[in-house]
């Protein structure tokens, strides 16, 4: 299962949005991977190091790939974070 | 074994004998043992335990920060937890341990790779590198803990020796078991020094790198008066130190050899300081730092709580004066419920009376109400109040008017109150220059020498690089004191002194000679200063003061004072 999403938060995938993203990815059983939309390389969404290491900024597009029972729910939750301007409290 | 002596800065006039325990909280990792000597399974278990402990710490810090500062700032700890549990990190550490490294070396190595990676990416990634370093240091510290000296359970008679001691270090020290402490760095007004005085512990600071040559388990004498650390002392030396530890406490008030009364009082922060003040024979309180009633809590103390604190202080002394300084809060003393500005230089910013007449007007009013009521209590006639950091006559007038208008409010409410004796702290050069203009408006001055020295010499307190400049033996500081006292001639205005200088028995004669009638200090030095007062003859003291005021350097001041003894 795969989806392409534009990163809305001002900070990009950094600081709090990144933190929330990784936390959420860890809540699901599905194995989620993440990469830039225009590149083939994928990194584990459950790794803070890997996610912040991508250095994805505001308005860039990312590709989310999920496999597992709750893959769809995981993608929904992660897409929600990436498309919310201010990270939720 | 022969005796040898190292010298530093003595910060308490007390001596102690004990055994050296080195405290090295941030030592570098030792060389790792050979891979075949590492028990990988045991190291993996240590790593897991450390990771769990570090996570607990981070959660606790997250909560505290969210409460004190805000959610936004607390979020960084979430990121730290994620780095801590990151699969790339845990896998890396596990591999390194299995490759034959002890847990702390494995952590060091694994994190360092990622730190370097992030640093090379530059920009905002640099911040992540700082986060990673933080997490790494935390893990290494937790891992090292088992082998680190536990300050809270030292053997009886330990002399703690360290590079420096932080507030969290000293908070753990059990004064009952510690015979003293000695540090490589630090000055008279460093945190460790103030802590030693408040607990009456023999202590020497600023010994320098030479201290590293004193090994764990060595017997030493800590002479907190001279600043001498005697290593491998002779039996005679030890006996002399033990004898010196017995100080003669005088509970009665003291006069000079020629019969002039000098009030010797204690500085207190919280009510817990009252006991030691009474025990050491203080006549009263010369400086009640009321901001301590406001620190380390979620909301300010209300009027009744403050009233009770002031009354308790008054009741602790049999007719002794209690001088309460109104709130002295500023950017250097964080208070969670106050919106303190982030200032470039808090010592020159909005603090003391500046806040009480400005953003903290409501807090000030509550304090003034409590003080006016305390002045009408049974021992209320002994209450005095003073305003901190006054630099203009307008501030003094405005502060005084607040007391008068709040007294009128209390009268209208039918609440018993009295206007207490009223004074100001002389801490700024402005107050010292204008002392003749201030004197007619007040009952007393109290010279705060720590701040006065800092402001007169433009030398930051606690900054070791300028500690020589900020010393109260500098001629300019002595002249500021002399100018203040001289300005009260012919006025009905007494002059006291609070601050470290007042508690230095080597200066007592000089201070009496300069005309100070009250000296207030950390409770620990009260007996020594009382003894010094009793030996002083005021005519000789005045002659000494005149000679000292002619000195052109601090070295000359020190020389005159040394020859005089």
UniProtKB/TrEMBL annotation, chain A:
Keywords, sorted A to Z: Cytoplasm, Phosphotransferase system
InterPro entries to which the protein is assigned, alphabetical: HPr, HPr-like, HPr-like_sf, PTS-HPr, PTS_HPr_His_P_site
GO BP terms, alphabetized: phosphoenolpyruvate-dependent sugar phosphotransferase system
Record localization: Cytoplasm
Residue ranges constituting the HPr domain according to the UniProt record: 1-89
UniProt main location, coarse: cytoplasm
Signal sequence region: none
Ribonucleoprotein as UniProt keyword: no
Pfam families, alphabetized: PTS-HPr (PF00381)
Cellular component terms (Gene Ontology): cytoplasm
PANTHER family named in the record: PHOSPHOCARRIER PROTEIN HPR (PTHR33705), PHOSPHOCARRIER PROTEIN NPR (PTHR33705:SF2)
Name of this chain's protein: Phosphocarrier protein Hpr
Organism encoding this protein: Haloferax sulfurifontis ATCC BAA-897
Lineage summary: Archaea, Methanobacteriati, Methanobacteriota, Stenosarchaea group, Halobacteria
TrEMBL record, chain B:
Subcellular location: Cytoplasm
UniProt cross-references to InterPro entries, sorted A to Z: PEP-util_enz_mobile_dom (IPR008279), PEP-utilizing_PTS_enzyme (IPR050499), PEP_util_C (IPR000121), PEP_util_CS (IPR023151), Phosphohistidine_dom_sf (IPR036637), PTS_EI (IPR024692), PTS_EI-like (IPR006318), PTS_EIN (IPR008731)
Pfam families to which the protein is assigned, alphabetical: PEP-utilisers_N (PF05524), PEP-utilizers (PF00391), PEP-utilizers_C (PF02896)
Entry keywords, A to Z: Coiled coil, Cytoplasm, Kinase, Magnesium, Metal-binding, Phosphotransferase system, Pyruvate, Sugar transport, Transferase, Transport
One GO MF term attached to the UniProt entry: kinase activity
Domain of life assignment: Archaea
Principal localisation: cytoplasm
Residues reported in the UniProt entry to bind Mg(2+): 427, 451
Cofactors (names): Mg(2+)
Functional note: General (non sugar-specific) component of the phosphoenolpyruvate-dependent sugar phosphotransferase system (sugar PTS). This major carbohydrate active-transport system catalyzes the phosphorylation of incoming sugar substrates concomitantly with their translocation across the cell membrane. Enzyme I transfers the phosphoryl group from phosphoenolpyruvate (PEP) to the phosphoryl carrier protein (HPr).
Family that this chain belongs to: Belongs to the PEP-utilizing enzyme family.
Protein's name according to its UniProt entry: Phosphoenolpyruvate-protein phosphotransferase
Organism expressing this protein natively: Haloferax denitrificans ATCC 35960
């Amino acid at each position: 299962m795969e989806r392409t999403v534009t990163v809305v938060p001002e900070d990009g995938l950094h600081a709090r949005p990144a933190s929330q993203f990784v936390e959420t990815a860890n809540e699901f059983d599905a194995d989620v991977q993440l990469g830039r939309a225009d590149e083939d390389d994928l990194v584990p969404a459950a790794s803070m190091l890997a996610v912040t290491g991508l250095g994805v900024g505001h308005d860039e597009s990312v590709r989310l790939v999920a496999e597992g029972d709750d893959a769809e729910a995981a993608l929904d939750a992660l897409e929600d974070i990436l498309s919310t301007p201010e990270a939720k409290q | 074994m022969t005796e040898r002596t190292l010298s530093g800065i003595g910060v308490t006039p007390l001596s102690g004998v004990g055994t050296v325990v080195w405290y090295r909280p941030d030592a570098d990792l030792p060389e790792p043992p050979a891979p075949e000597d590492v028990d990988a399974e045991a190291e993996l278990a240590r790593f897991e335990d450390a990771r769990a402990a570090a996570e607990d710490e981070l959660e606790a810090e997250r909560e505290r920060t969210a409460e004190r500062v805000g959610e936004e700032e607390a979020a960084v700890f979430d990121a730290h937890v994620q780095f801590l549990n990151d699969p790339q990190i845990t896998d890396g550490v596990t591999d390194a341990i299995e490759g034959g490294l002890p847990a702390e070396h494995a952590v060091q190595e694994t994190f360092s790779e990622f730190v370097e990676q992030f640093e090379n990416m530059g920009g905002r990634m640099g911040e992540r590198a700082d986060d990673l370093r933080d997490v790494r240091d935390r893990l290494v510290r937790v891992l090292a803990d088992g082998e680190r000296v536990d300050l809270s359970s030292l053997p009886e008679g330990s002399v703690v020796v360290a590079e420096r001691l932080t507030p969290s270090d000293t908070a753990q020290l059990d004064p009952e078991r510690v015979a003293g402490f000695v540090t490589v760095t630090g000055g008279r007004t460093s945190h460790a020094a103030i802590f030693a005085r408040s607990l009456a512990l023999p202590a020497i600071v600023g010994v320098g790198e030479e201290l590293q040559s004193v090994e764990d388990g060595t017997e030493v004498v800590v002479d907190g008066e001279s600043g001498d650390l005697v290593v491998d002392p002779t039996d005679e030396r030890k006996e002399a130190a033990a004898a010196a530890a017995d100080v003669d406490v005088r509970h009665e008030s003291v006069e000079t050899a020629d019969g002039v009364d000098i009030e010797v009082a204690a500085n207190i922060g919280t009510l817990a300081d009252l006991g030691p003040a009474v025990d050491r024979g203080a006549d009263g309180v010369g400086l009640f730092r009321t901001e301590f009633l406001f620190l380390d809590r979620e909301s300010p103390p209300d009027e009744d709580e403050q009233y009770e604190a002031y009354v308790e202080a008054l009741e602790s002394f049999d007719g002794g004066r209690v001088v309460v300084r109104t709130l002295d809060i500023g950017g250097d003393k964080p208070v969670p419920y106050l919106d303190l500005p982030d200032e470039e230089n808090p010592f020159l910013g909005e603090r003391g009376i500046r806040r009480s007449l400005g953003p903290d007007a409501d807090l000030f009013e509550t304090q003034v109400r409590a003080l006016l009521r305390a002045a009408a209590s049974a021992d209320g006639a002994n209450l005095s109040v003073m305003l901190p950091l006054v630099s203009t006559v307008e501030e003094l007038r405005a502060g005084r008017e607040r007391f008068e208008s709040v007294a009128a409010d209390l009268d209208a409410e039918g609440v018993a109150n009295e206007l207490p004796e009223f004074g100001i702290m002389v801490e700024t050069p402005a107050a010292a220059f204008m002392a003749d203009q201030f004197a007619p408006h007040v009952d007393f001055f109290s010279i705060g020498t720590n701040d006065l020295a800092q402001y007169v010499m433009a030398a930051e307190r606690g900054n070791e690089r300028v500690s020589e400049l900020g010393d109260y033996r500098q001629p300019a500081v002595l002249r500021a004191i002399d100018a203040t006292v001289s300005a009260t001639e012919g006025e009905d205005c007494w002059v006291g002194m609070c601050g470290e200088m007042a508690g230095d028995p080597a200066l007592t004669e000089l201070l009496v000679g300069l005309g100070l009638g009250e000296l207030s200090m950390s409770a620990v030095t009260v007996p020594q200063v009382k003894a010094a007062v009793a030996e002083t003859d005021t005519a000789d003291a005045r002659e000494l003061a005149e000679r000292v005021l002619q000195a052109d350097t601090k070295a000359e001041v020190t020389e005159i004072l040394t020859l005089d003894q």
